[in-house]
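Hi V.,

Quick status before I head out on leave. The structure for the redesign project is tokenized and pasted below; the design run finished overnight.
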């Protein structure tokens, strides 16, 4: 007898494909040559934790990013560089989640942030024609203070 009734999935690196190096390269191109010292898969400045925990809003995040730059950077440029980490949602992941949906309660738990959330929603909408997470997951859980 299968005692498992629910499965909780993480978003980044589990459901969505991500690549930290893409964000590092994008910020370096914007004039922050030492961005890898601020943010990587292994460690990150508290600025990124604060954003992901909902302790600061996107505009405060952008202002702090600008303080690391040697040139003026616009909000859209920062968002684009920050969202460069998001590669996409593989169809095989969607197929796998769909196959589990009838057997288990599915939940998504993520430390994503508001800037990424808007971008991956649009990415999924563009690729699948709709935001399919609402139909795949019973509930999506985000950091306290976010959304």
């Amino acid at each position: 007898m299968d005692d498992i009734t629910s499965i909780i999935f993480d978003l980044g690196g589990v459901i969505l494909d991500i690549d930290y190096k893409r964000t590092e390269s994008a910020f370096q191109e914007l004039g922050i040559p030492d961005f890898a010292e601020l943010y990587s898969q292994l460690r990150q400045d508290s600025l990124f934790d604060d954003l992901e925990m909902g302790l600061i809003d996107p505009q405060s995040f952008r202002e702090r990013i600008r303080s690391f730059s040697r040139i003026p950077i616009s909000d859209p440029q920062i968002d684009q560089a920050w969202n460069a980490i998001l590669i996409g949602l593989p169809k095989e992941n969607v197929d796998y989640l769909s196959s589990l949906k009838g057997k288990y309660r599915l939940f998504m738990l993520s430390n994503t942030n508001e800037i990424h959330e808007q971008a991956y929603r649009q990415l999924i909408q563009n690729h699948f024609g709709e935001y399919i997470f609402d139909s795949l997951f019973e509930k999506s859980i985000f950091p306290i203070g976010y959304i």
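Above is the designed sequence. DSSP finds eight helices and five strands in the chain.

G. will cover questions while I'm gone.

Best,
W.
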